[in-house]
Design a protein that fits this description.
Elements (H helix, E strand, L loop, with lengths): L4 E4 L13 H4 L2 E5 L6 E3 L2 E6 L4 E6 L1 H4 L1 E10 L2 E6 L4 E5 L14 E8 L30 E3 L8 E3 L14
Antiparallel strand pairs: 1-7, 2-9, 3-4, 4-5, 5-8, 6-7, 6-9, 10-11
Length: 172
């Protein structure tokens, strides 16, 4: 079992979940109040031993969906917030009665973040076949005026339409 560290245990005689720091209360949580039963949900398990004074828990985040950050254990009038840095732990009741006998756990609250599932890598797309270069089209020759040598005096004529009697010169 991994070690646990108590990070918040005020001497308030009626300390409870609602008295926890806001950074803890901002997390999702679930509470186990019936210490007479063991719990198993997906990859998360809690079992109580030693007449309800000890709780053992294990968690497999990929199966349960829980990334446990803190556990609050309450017994009698004492509560402790435990920072959890592992996927399993053993929690002992924080309370003793006037005769020095350890008190039963009244409830456990597990504070967690949702497990982030890694995104599947995108499969690369097939590379596109290179496009064949387009064969350049011959530019259209615009209608233009050209000078033509004929026996008559020079005059400007348009290429289109051309009378058949007049010789033409075509430029490319």
């Amino acid at each position: 079992m991994a070690s646990v560290e108590t990070i918040f245990a005020p001497s308030n005689a009626y300390f409870n979940d609602r008295d926890l720091p806001l950074y803890v209360l901002a997390l999702e949580s679930f509470k186990i109040e019936d210490i007479n039963n063991n719990y198993r949900v997906g990859g998360f398990e809690v079992s109580f031993t030693e007449n309800g004074t000890v709780a053992n828990w294990t968690n497999t985040p990929s199966d349960s969906g829980y990334d446990i950050k803190y556990v609050f254990v309450k017994s009698a009038t004492t509560g402790e917030l435990i920072d959890v840095s592992s996927e399993s732990g053993q929690i002992v009741s924080p309370s003793y009665n006037n005769q020095g006998v350890i008190q039963r756990i009244s409830h456990l609250t597990f504070y967690y973040a949702d497990v982030e599932t890694p995104e599947e890598p995108e499969t690369p797309e097939e590379p596109e076949a290179p496009e064949e270069p387009e064969t350049p089209e011959e530019p259209e020759t615009p209608n233009r005026k050209v000078k033509v040598a004929v026996d008559e005096p020079e005059e400007e004529i348009e290429e289109d339409p051309i009378p058949e009697a007049i010789p033409t010169i075509t430029f490319f």
